[in-house]
Amino acid sequence: MNLPSWTRALPALLVGALLAWAAAAGAQPAAPKVLRYAFNAAETGFDPVQTSDVYSRIVTVHIYESLYKYDHLARPYKIKPNTAAAMPEVSDDFRTWTVRIKPGIYYTDDPAFKGRKRELVAEDYVYQFKRVYDPRWNSPAVVSLEDEGIIGLMDLRQKALKEKKPFDYDTPVEGLQAVDRYTLRFKLREPRPRFLYGLAGAEGMAREVVEFYGDRIMEHPVGTGPFVLKEWRRSSRIVLERNPNYREVTYDAEPAADDAEGQALLARFKGRRLPMVDRVEVSIIEQSQPRWLAFLNGEHDFLYGLPNEYAPQAVPNGRIAPNLAKRGIVAHRQPGSDVTVTVYNMENPLIGGNAAAKVALRRALNLAYDVQREIQSVRRGQAVAAQSVMSPNTSGYQPDLVTENSLTDVPRAKALLDLYGWRDRDGDGWRETPDGQPLVLEMLSQSDPNSRQLDELWKKSTDALGVRVAIKVAQWPENLKAVRAGKFMIWRVGSSASSPDGQGSMEFGYGPSAGKGNLARFELPAYDTLYDRLKQLPDGPQRQAAFLEATRLLVAYAPYRFNVHRLVTDLTYAPLVGYRRPLFWYDWWQYVDIDPSLSPR
Q1: Quick one: pLDDT at residue 601?
Q2: Inter-residue contact 524 to 557 (CB < 8 Å)
Q3: Mapping DSSP to helix (H, G, I), strand (E, B) and coil, where does residue 209 land?
Q4: Pick from 433, 441, 557, 554: which is nearest to 488 by CA?
Q5: Mean pLDDT of the region 436-461
Q6: pLDDT band at 157 (very low <50, low <70, confident <90, very high)
Q7: What is the average per-residue pLDDT within 439-444?
Q8: In angstroms, what is the C-alpha Rg of the chain?
Q9: How far apart are CA 274 and CA 256, in angstroms?
Q10: Any residues with CB less than 8 A from the CB of 324 and at least 6 apart, and which?
């Protein structure tokens, strides 16, 4: 750079400063790295205690932090400390668990803190665990957390319900204590060998934030994680940015030695500070065609779940199409740790209950449904038939298991209906109830093309039986709300495993979890007994046998039809590097980078 002649008389130090200033003035700031993609259904909000849907959870796990986390690259899974300083200290009987938290972790700035810098402490986890039990928040997690048997928490909940008073957060409980500023101690009623899985999903929250925002806490997430919420237009757009208060965390992982992809990612990113992207922009696009076109047009860097109708042209024979490969598009395909289910409301007077005639009706509906046609015509081969509620990659799942759940047998279904009095008495082609009343079923659904195709297939199967079905269409969050309130007859939904333990899937039939994990509100003492045994049994043949017996009861009483396990294909453009779909967890944004130099020329 040439400086004016008068600068030659200046001291060398000053000249150096001028040169540095000139260079800085001429330098262009690096463009922010932005990850852009779309959810195919709307979120419900951002309070981990109140939400359970996958779309809300994807956001919250990037804002709040749990004590432990899953290794991003390890396959099979590996759990590691997150905000915890080390793995927990566990008593020999698996009843006492002690966790020490890293000091120096801070929340993002928020008006609730009144200008002070707020550190994450053990008491924040105590408070968040208690919030799950507070009736005010109606948390869907209360039953699954109570399964862990933390001594004293349910007593506080029952006291609040009985006395109709606010939940008492200040009363200490034996099973959950902040021993000091950075130490948590859990005491459990019974041995819980897999309590670590629960700690991998337990977030901390500052009490003053909840008290500051009250019932608006769903709109104001304040955490210690890598991202902060910057913009939210409900059911339309969610924007997060890098958390300026996020501590120094670098990329590290432990992929298997023979995992070539994992080892390559580790070599590329090891030691990089996280997160590597500056901003995440999420659109809500429920219709698959505009979501697909937005990706093809380059408006998004990532397609989360290739719509089934585009699988033949995007990934023929399971491989990325040549025309897409030329554009730098990469396919990531794997079996999902999930199951799709048709839910029958067991409290509904028409279709619910364990009486023989009601069981026969549900089993007939299940037998009439052609799941192979769903796999081929609706899912374009991107799924396998489910035999049970158990998800792939979890304990209790048996890949070689075959049950009646996957069968299609219309003559047998008709015979069942005839035998138990669901007959066409007036000759109009449609069956009536055993007492002669009109038989009309109602199914909740959504307006997206995939749901419409599944509705048509369902209606074909019921038409073949002579059973009328009315389809009631609404947005997904509205349907979820109706199902949780028990105001429905039939719904179809997908469920993803949140841990490696199949116990979570078994909650689908657990009586005390009715209206929460047990969407069907199924109640059967024999099943509940098995569920309680599963909590205490160590992994092994006995536990596997209990899983199988519980599965047989669900198939026999048919509070659900378990439809498919999806084969998931995600697409990325070449500049988005580092992506690997998680198995049971949802946080991954901090592990990816945007490298514009990789755009195809």
Answers
A1: 55
A2: yes
A3: helix
A4: 441
A5: 95
A6: very high
A7: 98
A8: 27
A9: 22
A10: 314, 571
Q: What is the DSSP track for 369-437?
A: --HHHIIIIISTT-EEE-SSSPPTTSTT--TT---GGG---HHHHHHHHHHTT---SSSSS--B-TTS-
Other CB atoms within 10 A of residue 31 CB: 9
Q: What's the CA gap between 38 and 301, in Å, rounded?
A: 10
Distance CA 556, CA 550 (A): 10
Q: Which long-range contacts (CB under 8 A, 24 or more apart) does 471-475 make?
A: 471/442, 471/443, 471/445, 472/442, 472/443, 472/444, 472/445, 473/445, 473/446, 473/447, 474/444, 474/445, 474/446, 475/42, 475/235, 475/286, 475/446, 475/447
Q: What is the dihedral of CA 526, 529, 530, 531, to 10 degrees?
A: 120
Residue 175 amino acid letter = G
Q: How confident is the model at residue 22 (pLDDT cuts 50, 70, 90)?
A: very low
Q: Which helix (H) or strand (E) holds 237?
A: strand 237-242
Q: For residue 203, what is the DSSP state?
A: B
469 pairs with which residues across the strands?
441
- Say what the pLDDT of residue 4 is: 45
Task: Answer yes or no: is pLDDT of 388 > 80.
Answer: yes
* Helical H segments across 86-206, by residue range: 122-133, 142-147, 153-163, 195-199
Give the phi and the psi of residue 28 in degrees, each rounded to 5. Answer: -95, 130
pLDDT for residue 3 is more than 90: no
Taking phi over 0 as left and psi of -120 to 50 as alpha, with beta for the rest, 466 belongs to: left
Q: Give the largest CA-CA distance in the chain.
A: 110
Nearest to 418 by CA among 442, 434, 404: 434
Question: Which tokens sit at 533?
Answer: 């045994």
For residues 448 and 445, the model is more confident at: 445
DSSP SS3 for 230: strand
pTM of the model: 0.79
Length of the chain counted residue by residue: 601
Cα end-to-end distance, the chain, whole Å: 32
Using DSSP's 3-state secondary structure scheme, residue 298 falls into: coil
Label residue 538 by pLDDT band (50, 70, 90): confident
Can you tell me the mean pLDDT for 379-384?
A: 90
Which three-class secondary structure state does DSSP give residue 565?
A: strand
Task: Categorize the per-residue pLDDT at 537 as very low, low, confident or very high, splitting at 50, 70 and 90.
Answer: confident
Q: How, if at all, do strands 279-284 and 34-39 pair?
A: parallel
